[in-house]
């Protein structure tokens, strides 16, 4: 298929683009490089540098596109609280422009990068797709607004749409020659921060609270390998049905605590990785674990890279290649 990948110079977008190319698809990447990197666009993709809202119409206007995978977004929770306007404009308004271009040019399929942040503080874990959606920050709210927009386009305009709600994406795409992973100018994610300590560019890792109601007192998250996520996107493309908007949670269904993550990083890197306990971070739920049973049942998706040490060692391999 000829596919548009928005945000294909970013972490998840570039890895998915690489998988799509490996599977024989023709990929056009649209990215404004505001947070992405030109050299992350996989070899074999056509690259268009441009801002999503402004450029989507022109790119899709070239014709022949059979699907859009939409990753381009702002994704910093803290920033979204401080500057919500960036999220309503960069995420919601830009996605609206993309959907209008999809409609205008009759593109039949859309896969959207949604998030566990649409659920907010969970009532039950593992979290199923039927859980209430009560995002606790503008980032999650903006993604949820886009989900609602997509539902209405599927119903009214026949779009075959899928939203994939990621839990904690981690690891890197490490093949013979290709190394694609997480490298944000402002890094807030646990595993890359811990690996910065192992690499000697950060002195210690702060553990945000050890008085949570969890087995070792630190927060528990569901870390999912970025290559497993990419597998789900390919399955979503082939399972999409016209006039339907399906929503799937993507996680491993297993939680690891912050301390377990730090320990896995020590094992993989051989570095002692000093850790200091810091106050809780505002807005962090104690436990977030996905129920991905629906994705298993309907898409036939099963994550295969679920061992924490495997996830960390791929992230470490990527970090060392930089
Ligand atoms: N965390 C931490 N220290 C850090 C960064 C994160 O203790 O320097 C914790 C954070 O409180 C959360 C978990 O690690 O419980 C994962 O955080 P991350 O920002 O990677 O992802 P989130 O779950 O917020 O999407």
From TrEMBL:
CDD domains on file: UDP_G4E_1_SDR_e
- Name all NAD-dependent epimerase/dehydratase domain ranges: 4-251
Q: Which domain of life is it from?
A: Bacteria
Q: What class of enzyme is it?
A: isomerase
* Cofactor section: NAD(+)
The chemistry this enzyme catalyses reads: UDP-alpha-D-glucose = UDP-alpha-D-galactose
What InterPro entries does the entry give? Epimerase_deHydtase, NAD(P)-bd_dom_sf, Sc_DH/Rdtase_CS, UDP_G4E
Keywords, alphabetical: Carbohydrate metabolism, Isomerase, NAD
Q: Which Gene3D superfamilies match?
A: NAD(P)-binding Rossmann-like Domain, UDP-galactose 4-epimerase, domain 1
EC number of the protein: 5.1.3.2
The keyword NAD is assigned to this record = yes
Cite the annotated pathway.
Carbohydrate metabolism; galactose metabolism
Stored Pfam families: Epimerase
* GO terms of molecular function: UDP-glucose 4-epimerase activity
PANTHER family (UniProt xref): UDP-ARABINOSE 4-EPIMERASE 1, UDP-GLUCOSE 4-EPIMERASE
Q: Which family does it belong to?
A: Belongs to the NAD(P)-dependent epimerase/dehydratase family.
Protein name in UniProt:
UDP-glucose 4-epimerase
């Amino acid at each position: 298929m000829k596919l548009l990948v928005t945000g294909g110079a970013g972490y998840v977008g570039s890895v998915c683009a690489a998988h799509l190319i490996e599977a024989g698809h023709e990929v056009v990447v649209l990215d404004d490089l505001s947070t992405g990197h030109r050299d992350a666009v996989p070899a074999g993709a056509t690259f268009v540098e441009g801002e999503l809202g402004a450029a989507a119409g022109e790119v899709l206007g070239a014709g022949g596109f059979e699907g859009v995978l939409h990753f381009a977004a702002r994704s910093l929770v803290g920033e979204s609280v401080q500057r919500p306007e960036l999220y309503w404009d960069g995420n919601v308004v830009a996605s609206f422009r993309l959907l209008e271009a999809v409609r205008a040019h009759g593109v039949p399929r859309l896969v959207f990068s949604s998030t566990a942040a649409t659920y907010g503080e969970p009532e039950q874990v593992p979290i199923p797709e039927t859980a209430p959606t009560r995002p606790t920050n503008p980032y999650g709210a903006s993604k949820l607004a886009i989900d609602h927009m997509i539902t209405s386009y599927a119903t009214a305009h026949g779009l075959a749409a899928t939203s994939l709600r990621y839990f904690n994406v981690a690891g890197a795409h490490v093949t013979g020659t290709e190394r694609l992973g997480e490298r944000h100018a402002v890094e807030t994610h646990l595993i890359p921060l811990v690996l910065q300590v192992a690499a000697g560019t950060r002195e210690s890792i702060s553990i945000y609270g050890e008085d949570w109601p969890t087995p070792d007192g630190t927060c528990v998250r569901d870390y999912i390998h970025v290559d497993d996520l990419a597998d789900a996107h390919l399955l979503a493309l082939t399972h999409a049905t016209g006039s339907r908007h399906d929503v799937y949670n993507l996680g491993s269904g297993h939680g690891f605590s912050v301390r377990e993550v730090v320990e896995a990083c020590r094992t993989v890197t051989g570095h002692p990785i000093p850790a200091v306990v810091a106050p809780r971070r505002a807005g962090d739920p104690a436990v977030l674990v996905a129920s991905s049973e629906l994705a298993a049942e309907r898409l036939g998706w099963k994550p295969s890279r679920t061992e924490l040490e495997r996830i960390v060692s791929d992230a470490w391999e990527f970090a060392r290649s930089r």
